[in-house]
């Protein structure tokens, strides 16, 4: 069955709810472990069916934000998902207090019980209204950004469609394109400040209602950080500041020399090579076909995977009007089907979708035998290992997209991986400040952002933009609005993915096998357990970051970047 044929039907929530409540009641009165195990499985199936409908609705809404039907369905889900969470919480509660808990445990992944425990810490029926408000604000942000119709040189563009102009060879074009883009955010500055202030308040209220000092602690629990804490993260950020920021600065200096400028302005940063950044050749169809061929050649497992995605039309990749921004991979449990969404715009980002999002999809496809919905994807920092490592496993095929520019692509991919880490850590640091100071206003937040930018990204020169100088760059960073504390995850995963990169450089024959093993484990283990399973090192360990960066530096130094 193709994605278009997947049946969507809004469930009768009352009926479903009563059914699950009955299952929970039977669970509580069950007199054997086996009976309870069967009931958990039945409840999981039910929840999985409901989740699948919500996911199908959300995918179709993102494909066309102007489709009234799915817009309404999405509002329905915004309203009702918190009730599903409430039901799950009831289920978790019963499981964790079962007299047969020790007998039940071996039948489900161990992370299921950790997730149950953390979910209970993050939920109480008294915060349902808050959760609904949080969802509505998050949807408002998505819609605002998707509504962007930016006039530029006689044409109208969405935010993503402007990207090629922002990377344009002509300095004045990229400057004006970026001004046009930031102009959109400036026009909506008050709205964005209001949305974010409301989000910070509602999250803080939720945290306090649940008995936490502020949202930081709750944020970590919601992100399911089972094996690391705020101090470990702070220590990691310090290592980034000390060991990585100076290396990144040398890369920006090389870039300045390479593109022949006296000084690097903020609008020069996306432009990395004198004759332009590496761009993929071919139409979207040709790119997708080359992607399919690549996965056929990479391994048996990826061949089976990509054929499944194509056959069932589980990818919507090309940018069009009304489509939500960004890219994502999600999973529809009832069809055991991953789905990839993106906005191709003719830049190398299109290839990243085929490697990155496909890496996520490959993981969830590889672990589709896991029935427990909570454990199909691992927690975020682990999930990004699959996607970011796939970006490196596919390196040998870059000629099929970039031809003679493949090395240029590899250089900017790897340099980009390194340069990204300080930014990712900055986003994290910023959110710690925001949620530790929930009473401070929008002005304070903007000032703090700018202060942090100067620490982590000292090369940034906003002298031509008073708007960005105010500390507003983060308006475009959706995670800050929609997924608090989810961002450092990308940097943690990058440090892991770069270890796979090193193993590939060393031609370690075990590297792919360990990667595959990691994918098959899905979310059945915690982050640090998964890292260990794949024979990799924790990014929190002192010195790991430094040694990984050495490999990257060595590769970059071995390339004559002026000749690219
Ligand atoms: Zn990802």
Can you walk me through this structure?
The strands form 2 sheets. The protein has a 3-stranded mixed beta sheet with strand order 3-5-4, sandwiched between helices. A two-stranded antiparallel sheet has the order 1-2. Helix content is 64%, strand content 4%. With 564 residues, it is mostly helical. It contains 24 helices and 5 strands. The structure holds zinc ion. Zinc ion binds at residues 356, 360, 384, 387.
Keywords:
64% helix; binds zinc ion; globular; 5 strands; 24 helices; 564 residues; mainly alpha; three-stranded mixed β-sheet; two-stranded antiparallel ribbon
Distance between the termini: 45 Å
Number of helices: 24
Number of strands: 5
Molecular shape: globular
Strand-pairing-aware structural class: mainly alpha
Low-confidence parts, pLDDT < 50 over ≥5 residues? none
Which ions, cofactors or small ligands are bound in this entry?
A: zinc ion
Strand content: under 5%
* Strand order in space, largest sheet: 3-5-4
Report mean pLDDT, rounded to a whole number.
Answer: 95
Major sheet details: 3 strands, mixed
Helix content range:
55-70%
What is the H/E string? Answer: HHHHHHEEHHHHHHHEEEHHHHHHHHHHH
Radius of gyration from the alpha-carbon trace, in angstroms:
23 Å
